Amino acid sequence: MSRIGKIARRSFLVGSAAVVGGVAFGYVMYKRPVANPLLDQVAEGEAALTPYVRVDASGITLITPRADSGQGAYSVQAALIAEELDVELDQIRVDPGMPSPAYYNTALSAEAAPFRSTDDSFAAQSTRGVMDALMKFLGMQITGGSTTVPDSFEKLRLAGAVARETLKAAAAQQTGVQVADLKTARGMVELPGGDTLRYEDLAPIAATLDPVNDVTLRDPSTWRLVGKAMERVDIVAKSTGTQSYGIDFEVEGMVHATVRTNPRRGGGMIEFDSASAEQMRGVQAVVPITNGVAVVANNTWRAIQAANAIDITWADAPYPAEMEEHWQTLSDSFIEDRRDSRMRDDGDVDAALDGAEVIEAEYRAPYLAHAPLEPITATVQVTEDRVDVWTGTQVPRFVQSNVAKLCDMDADQVFVHVLMMGGSFGHRLEDRVVREATEIALQLKGTPVKLTYSREEDMTHNDTRQIAMARGRGTVSGGKVDAFDLGIAMPSVIASQMGRQGFPVAGPDLQIVAGAWEQPMQIPHYRVSGYRAPELAPITSWRSVGASTNGFFHDVFLDELIHAAGADPMEERLRLCWHAPSRKTLEAVAEMSNWGAALGPDKARGVAFCLSFGVPTAEVIEVTNTANGIRIDNVCVAAEVGTVVDPVNFENMVQGGVVWALGHAMNCEITYSDGMVDQQNYYDYEGMRMFQAPVINVRGLENGDAVRGVGEPMVPPAAAALSNAIFAATGQRIREMPMNKFIDFV
Questions:
Q1: The model's pTM
Q2: Are the CB atoms for 436 and 287 separated by under 8 Å?
Q3: pLDDT digits (tens, 9 = 90+) for 402-417
Q4: 207 vs 42: CA distance, rounded Å
Q5: Residue 459 lies in a domain
Q6: Is 145 exposed, middle or buried (0-12, 13-18, 19+ CB in 10 A)?
Q7: Could you give the CA distance from residue 144 to residue 433 in angstroms, rounded to a whole number?
Q8: Whether the bond into 738 is cis, omega within 30 of 0
Q9: Triad 465, 744, 639: Cα angle to 5°
């Protein structure tokens, strides 16, 4: 064990509680303390010991500021605090808290810095430190990028330790017993004679003390929760159907609303006739909003029926009306004037390709919707001196800022109550539903307005995953891959997403090449170029962002070169891979899948690898080529995450990521006709069906020195492994998703 000052090279203070994960090289401004937001809210006899721990007479509340959309974020945050605070998960309440700069995400800087996650050079560490400082200055309280565990792993354990030692100090003051003679367990301080003092009873004294920052973290060998299978804090509610989500929220006096906005995204509304809608049962008002109209009624169904009855004339879309034009825009973007980055350029690719037998291929990945099961909703109440927002969101600080601007109020007059979400996959990084609910609520001051999208409205206006195209050229020599040249064209995800938040984005968009340029493959002549296509339809982060398409492009092209060389797909990847943790994932998945062993008739395997979000992930998919189509039988996944915090949740997250990725690769796309989305509901955006779901075997490796998240890294290799398996089974190479355009699945 080590003192807090030796825990990491990077540390700073939040309030009086030490928090790890800051800048590497001593930025004075960066190290200035951020105020503990709970101190503004404490009542008499209540102790806000750190920004993450509140204790009062009624119990212990752990603040869990990373949003939960079903991935277990509240539970893992609570477990990290509880590990050091010496409480059990069944003793505590979790609360996402109010938005605050104190809850900025320390792990976002890893994806923002233009360095591979395998690069530990001085320049890489320095730049990550600068980017982390920027995240702090901007107060970036964001849930995304598989950063909940990396962001929380040390800072929340430290918060628990600070709270524990402060409560012991309170017990020492009350009893006169030396702190060294006190112990803690199950939310109590234990005295030498066996008597105990509840944390709740010590809160009034603890509230008068300065937090004890001189703490020691427990050695992993003593962990009670971390690394052990644990019951999630929401398991009972979700198992009994009593979990409350945003769609369930109610408040006295609430009215219901829905909207219709231009189905040609970003186009305006020319005129509307709502006369018939206004006469429908339950309708209370029809009001204009930006680019559309809202209906207010006494329930959501009546609001939706009335909205559909409004006759509206819409303006044209600001992007190409037909899909052929979208694809042509990407095809035309492989030119020097549109080159956004060349993050990888090893050897001499041009010389290696000159005069050689060049293998060429083109790949495509479509727009995709997020389509979470829970309907998109937000409730907003505007009064003269405050605004309350109840919604599921991954960006509460953006919500707070944008609502304040709409209402011409200060941000501290906007109270964002973050609710449990029934899925997101990146959708709730956007806040359009909150802005529209606020527009309606401003016209009905004092009345809480609950805005709910119909499924069709959500599918039509969902900011989708990027459309993308890649072109590969390569050569092989002596049974080995010799040259690899991959160009990727897509619009900028970050410019589209952050532009809606009013943040200009300068420089290259690393998401254009994420999941491709940073792969730890030692190919003699190796180049990855990103080409920034003009803006098309609005896009945003979708589970694994740029890597969701690029993991497919990179690994399928690598597989094509390996087969052209006549090499074994697993052995050649292992030969090329120079990064030890990545090699171990390939070795693990080879063992899990019994790679090389004979398979039955019409069966074949495909392997894929992708390092994304700092997580090396290898997947092997086994398929059967039946008379009716391809059946996916088994999937083996190995991922290096440093520490598996909860083995049960880890396995579920990995399996869910694989199902998500395969379902979309097989069956899903968003297309445009006349500027409008063609797919309107789950019946034409199907995903993976239950009967298609394979057996999924999971192995988490713990060889790395950094703790990583798993929500997103499982997605990029899955489509590639499936395509490679189909090729091995049929000889047909599928280079475009969804794959059901080319082959049937059973």
A1: 0.93
A2: no
A3: 999 999 999 999 999 9
A4: 9
A5: no
A6: buried
A7: 19
A8: yes
A9: 50
